[in-house]
């Protein structure tokens, strides 16, 4: 900011006082790679003491035109989106970039964001989490030369990080089959605003394919399709328990919905896992605390990977643009062998 | 952005085409209050069609110097912080402001943020969630004329939104006392990096005062002090269950830690609430799904209130700078009357 009444300090002054080159000052203050933490700290302290203000243009090249990345999520209070943002923010800030956070809960809000983007032009890239981007939106982004990376989706035309949802639900089905279950139910969830969204369709397909391969015919009475909502999952479990021949095990599309389903089982006077086994997807932090068996997906890692991908795109360096991170079974206390 | 080869479009062009005044165009594009949604949408579409780009300076007055607010949270994946951010982002964006999100997990990271702030000067305000701001940091903010609002803290020198932690723990104690419990334990948690942090101290004091008023002498064997961590809470419950005379009810400083404590009770072959009643604080979304009795605090409301306070400070309009939002008992299935 400069001390009032004193001449402005420039980068050369800071470099001289710190005994380093101007490039090092620039990299240290922009948080770019290739500067030791000790040097970064010392340069930063000297710059601060001298009242030196980085001119925004000075560090444009290293950090893109704006130094900012927009992150679009449906809702900040939901664990998965928060965990992805945790990974994104950590990696982007390490590289000296800032995160602008936007909640776009539905398609209208998403259209609004992309409609306003050209009149603002304030980010170098957009990371889109847990939602699709339609063709019109994508063309607008390309025209603006704003990079786009998708987390938790699958897009053939721009870079993505995701899990393999078909494989995740195969793992869930395989666990229940290995425990001897044959009447296996599924509570399948679809976000109401985006019925075409792949992830949930893949979760249903992976489950059905695994059962088919095990020679188990599909019983339509054992699948309940709901919007992505915990209370809906609680009701869905009630529907499954009301079937003439209820399932002995149930696969639910997320941990939060699985916990809601378990509440229904307990309220019905039945026991988990003795009467019904339940498995979710996520490894939500509360899954460990509630002893919930689940298929774990690394949420913060998906965010961190998307951030590194974004930095590479901004820098123009080559990067693997289609990353699938692994999922795995975490067996806990809500699944058990089928009683003989 | 302007179409290549064509002259730049200015705000007057957009106003003429839309048949409104320039002030309306400015307010519509900046998202300021006082413009109908229909007008906002039409002006925005016309501006987009004409390739009009808002000059960043044009809307400075309505939205502060930068149009951005920094939000500091310890960790994006934890429910409370995510829910506060949800409320903040919703209200700030409605007013046309953007949220820059920063995770500062400990005191070092916080010092780093405030050290770098002067050399960046890119926000009009900072909302600090779930952490203290020390005197040095506060003086730096005042020198920069950056507004500061605190959520989930108590500060005498700058505006805050919070719950009354003494009252919240009194409510928890009162519920257990009303159920007839007399041997009441507490798992009290302290964030290791900020031992002076008021909230947790208040939660302990409110609980102790309520027991004292009920004429119940304090038994040191019934309180376990831990860092703010679920696994630590799980171990703490084991310690309470190992006491020569274990508690019949336990108050835990958060829902997540309460669920961890319940897991320990169940693993010990005991039942909740028949053998031990457990109550938390928060009303985490999973509290409803796990039937956990708790003292609810409105997290998103605290965020929204902080955002509105921030907007008033930027605009220079009067605002209540000390807001305490209410907490309330949500009785569910983890607390029950003391068996006779």
Structural descriptors:
homodimer, 340 residues, alpha/beta, 434 Repressor (Amino-terminal Domain), Rossmann fold, 3 domains, six-stranded parallel sheet, 13 helices, transcription regulation (chains A, B)
Short synopsis of the structure:
The structure is a homodimer of 340-residue chains. Chain A has 340 residues and is an alpha/beta fold.
Order of helices and strands of chain A: HHHHEHEHEHEEHEHEHEHEHEHEE
Mean pLDDT of chain A, to the nearest integer, reads 86
The fraction of residues in strands of chain A falls at: 15-25%
**CATH homologous superfamily assignment of the largest domain in chain A:** Response regulator
The assigned CATH architecture of the largest domain in chain A is: 3-Layer(aba) Sandwich
Class computed from helices, strands and strand pairing of chain A? alpha/beta
Q: Which runs of chain A of at least 5 residues are low in confidence (pLDDT < 50)?
A: 1-7, 55-63
Helix content of chain A: 40-55%
CATH class of the largest domain in chain A: Alpha Beta
Please give the oligomerization state of what you see. Answer: homodimer
What is the tally of beta strands of chain A? 12
Q: How far apart are the termini of chain A?
A: 76 Å
> Quick one: which chains have the greatest interface?
A-B, 55 and 55 residues
User: What's the main sheet of chain A like?
Assistant: 6 strands, parallel
The rough form of chain A would be described as elongated
The DSSP helix count of chain A reads 13
| Radius of gyration of chain A, taken over Cα atoms and rounded to an integer in Å | 25 Å
